[in-house]
TrEMBL record, chains A, B:
Biological processes per GO annotation: NAD+ catabolic process; NADP+ catabolic process
Protein name: NAD(+) diphosphatase
Reaction equations catalysed: a 5'-end NAD(+)-phospho-ribonucleoside in mRNA + H2O = a 5'-end phospho-adenosine-phospho-ribonucleoside in mRNA + beta-nicotinamide D-ribonucleotide + 2 H(+)
PANTHER family: NAD-CAPPED RNA HYDROLASE NUDT12, NUDIX HYDROLASE, NUDC SUBFAMILY
Cross-referenced CDD domains: NUDIX_NADH_pyrophosphatase_Nudt13
EC identifiers of the protein: 3.6.1.22
Source organism, top-level taxon: Eukaryota
Family affiliation: Belongs to the Nudix hydrolase family. NudC subfamily.
Length: 415, 415
């Protein structure tokens, strides 16, 4: 079926695995990094990690990652990012940075991604020894936003030009082009989601004033004062904001839960697929949609399937999940089964999102999984017969869900 | 074990159910309403629904719902809300409301919740006949925010006073007090989550200007102009904003995916539970935490368990889910199994969130599920022996996950 390798989990002989089958890991998951999320506020740790010779920096320009070839990210060193970040950006503690907040100055955006504590990635370090902080070790990984913006435009452009001179480029790795090897796709996904969230939230949704990125890129606070426009060096009071003094979810990154489901017929012999108008000819996929406030996953699956296709769903079982950083989704993949009889009737008249929805025999889906999958931006694969069903590639959880049903997951009557 | 009934799903003899067991529905799910989400932009529909005699209105004051007794919401009629909403608040189409946007005027917040198309709720209508719009019918449900604020303070207070005179009260139904019968808890959860989201987002996080609620309370747009302060009746241009002209997730309600997991030991005979310092004595629960950008559910479970307890988790299986409107979580409930040997070693030194984490024999957990559960705000239940394990009530998904493991869910060696 082509495409890069998918994440592979270790052998597993647990009772859960024996009963429910092996866990499925999807593209964009399987990160080799330990996030050490509890150290993001520890500037002693961040300073040591940022300046260590083994540390690797992923650069992103307008959300496109620096790459060395079609399937690998390029990681650069401390010296490469210093013109933008300064030598020691975590020198001051967060409280001080908040006190000194000046909304006229563009802050460099630096994400701490984690440490490669299992040595799963090619070493980027020198011979100077591994990084170690307390009981934690492994090469640290950061992402730095080099998108030219505000008072950092010149510094960003100088870095971009220097990298171009080295033959490195920023490449689009959006859903139309998922070529990165899977551990690097997971790192890119984490960085992309967080940089995008920061870019969408320069202002406080609660009070309308500018926010400041803290916790190594994973929190945005609404500082109580601002030095902007001050002539005497004294900060201006910004008035009260409900996000201060309490924990507000809007200070933290947003992830949008999304349900995506392979719906089998009541007899387990057919699969419900739909297509959108703008898709290539003969292309279908599983139905999907955003979960709403106050809904369970199971309810969201039943609502979305009924709204989009008219089909009524009974049992819903979660199969696996996929981070989907375009911009911030968590794809929750389910296998579900339609209610018999009238429950399977297709009606597109509720929500006019789909151009078509149809029941496909499992045999036809199986054939398409073998000979009809490709990236949506690519032509049909070799062996494809014009007019036959086309499906998303295996990097998409939709593909894995269809595969699960075709292989008899949850359906005792295997084809 | 006391407490209100939990949502019950219809009998289910599907293949999925035969293989994986019946679906579990948790408290706050099981809504009796069909959201008809695709009609939220249709003002012909909204006008007809808003003014129909069978329509029921849930009022909320500072996120507390109007109730008629401890376990039931009170629904009021069109005449009761009219002083705040006006008789026909959906008379103008959205485009016109956006053009007329004036940030000096407080807009009433009116949510369309759905229609009771299966007649699951006590009829609130008169004898005047059922509501019908195109192929959809059933009593419509709306929620209206009567929290006194801005230019609506007086109208809100007049409504609140009139209801108090009728003996109705606004009651707190936060996690310390989950008394509502389950279909009404689901309606309250939906309304609470959406009103809270609107209250946290009066400003555009992208450009810092005031937003306007549209789509019957489920979207906030950043209007291009503002009549505020205009003396000649011409609106002021607000400059560009990236949320306009494209679809931005920040215009839509936010839901925070959260993982919560019952972690069994490798031999399936013990369960990992933790406790926070501020909890009542002897009280433990399952571990939980927010999913992060770029993570799968399974990765988030493994990360959170390791960060909080040091335990290393292998296979993760999603069990069920629970909307948790405090303020906006989706609880994704999993059963997981620890890796054997060193994988089970407890170490609290990473993230100091827990006061304690321990392995409990399933027998002890079973005993506590029978005699040690209560709301956290309540005293220990009857039959509880001082010093024994205390656990959350069955309205909490934590309780259902522990129950599942104790009952042998996923673990062939039943106790």
């Amino acid at each position: 079926m082509g495409g890069p390798d998918l994440p592979v989990l270790p052998e597993d002989d647990s009772m859960l695995s024996a009963r429910f089958g092996r866990e499925v890991a999807n593209y964009f998951s399987g990160s080799p990094l330990n996030r050490l999320s509890f150290l993001r506020t520890d500037h002693d740790f961040l300073r040591a990690a940022f300046s260590h010779p083994s540390t690797a920096f992923l650069l992103m320009n307008s959300l496109n990652p620096l790459t060395k070839d079609d399937s690998h990210l390029a990681f650069v060193s401390h010296a490469d990012v210093e013109p933008l970040t300064g030598a020691d950006p975590f020198a001051k503690p967060e409280e001080e940075l908040i006190k000194e907040f000046n909304s006229d100055k563009t802050q460099p955006l630096i994400l701490f991604l984690g440490v490669d504590d299992k040595n799963l990635l090619p070493s980027n370090g020198t011979e100077s020894g591994a990084f170690k902080f307390k009981e934690y070790n492994g090469s640290p990984y950061f992402a730095v936003d080099v998108t030219p913006r505000g008072t950092l435009t010149e510094a960003s452009n100088s870095i971009i030009d220097a990298l171009k001179a080295k033959g490195l480029t920023f490449q689009d790795h959006s859903p139309r082009r998922m070529n990165l090897v899977s551990p690097e796709a997971a790192i890119y996904g984490q960085a992309r989601a967080l940089l995008d969230w920061n870019a969408r939230n320069p202002f406080c949704a609660q009070c309308g004033q500018r926010t400041l990125s803290v916790n190594a890129g994973t929190k945005r606070v609404c500082p109580p004062t601002d030095l902007s426009g001050s002539s005497d060096g004294k900060p201006r009071d910004r008035g009260p904001c409900a996000t201060r003094g309490t924990i507000s979810n809007i200070s933290f990154p947003r992830t949008d839960p999304t349900v995506i489901m392979a719906v089998a017929s009541a007899d387990g012999k057919r699969l419900l697929l739909g297509r959108q108008r703008r898709w290539p000819a003969y292309w279908f996929s599983t139905l999907a949609g955003f979960l709403e406030p106050g809904e369970s996953i199971e309810e969201a699956v039943r609502r979305e399937v009924w709204e989009e296709s008219g089909v009524r769903v009974g049992r819903v079982v979660v199969h696996s999940s996929q981070p989907w950083p375009f911009p911030a989704s968590l794809m929750i993949g389910a296998v579900a089964q339609a209610l018999p009889g009238e429950g399977e009737a297709i009606h597109l008249g509720h929500d006019p999102e789909l151009e078509s929805a149809k029941w496909f025999p499992l045999e036809e889906v199986k054939e398409a999984l073998l000979h009809g999958t490709s990236g949506m931006g690519e032509g049909a694969p070799e062996g494809y017969k014009e007019g036959a069903l086309r499906l998303p590639p295996q990097q998409a959880i939709a593909n894995r869900l269809m595969y699960a049903v075709v292989e008899g997951w949850g359906l005792p009557s295997k084809i």
